Amino acid sequence: MTKATARTSQRLVDAVAHQEFEFDYLRNALYFRGQVIHLSPHESDVLRVLLNHRARPVSVNTLIQRVYGVNEPDQAAASIRVAVYNLRKKIQPTGMVIKAQPRLGYEIDATAIPELNRRISDQILLVLNHAKAANEREISFHLQAALDVAEMRREKLPLPQ
User: Fold this and answer.
1) Is residue 160 part of a domain?
2) Domain of 54: which CATH number?
3) 31 with 105, same domain?
4) What residue numbers bound the domain in which 95 lies?
5) Are 39 and 100 contained in the same domain?
């Protein structure tokens, strides 16, 4: 790509009008309330994995597998940590937060973005994780059952009788 083409592509990304939130993986950009947050391709890859697994911790090994595949470099874990560090700063204006879960990995809290939390199963899963963390076994049991029903509805499977 020539420098002129790169400048034109950059202007196209900057000129797109987005009202609230959109993650454009192909352009490595987040659009939030009319602003563009530019991401590196690596940051986009990490964010995509975290958003696809929102409300669940994602291990560093899973991030490495999903971002690099079989071409894992020697410094993959360090590269993931750097990307998460940079993403935390960049996504701060959106209200999303990337949390480190000890011995589990990273989890993104995207509850501040209504566009990402439309599925009821996402909401149930978030509360289920909190109940499990608080060692609320009975509540966790019922929330797991509710999550199973919500997932079946989403996949349009017949509900158990």
Assistant:
1) no
2) 1.10.10.10
3) yes
4) 15-116
5) yes
Task: Match 């911790």 to its residue by tokens.
Answer: 57
Q: Of 29-38, 85-94, 124-133, which has the strongest mean pLDDT?
A: 85-94
**59-67 own/partner pairs: CB under 8 Å, 24+ apart:** 59/104, 59/105, 60/105, 60/106, 62/105, 63/105, 63/106, 67/42
57 and 105 inside one domain:
yes
| Mean pLDDT to the nearest integer, 6-34 | 65
The CA–CA distances, whole Å, from 123 to 1, 90, 116, 128, 154 equal 43, 24, 10, 9, 13
- Does the pLDDT value for residue 125 go beyond 70? yes
Task: Measure the CA–CA gap between 97 and 108, rounded to whole angstroms.
Answer: 6
Q: What are the tokens at 138?
A: 């009975």
Q: What is the mean pLDDT of residues 48-65?
A: 90
pLDDT at 115: 67
Total structural domains within the chain: 2
Tell me the C-alpha distance between 154 and 31, whole Å: 27
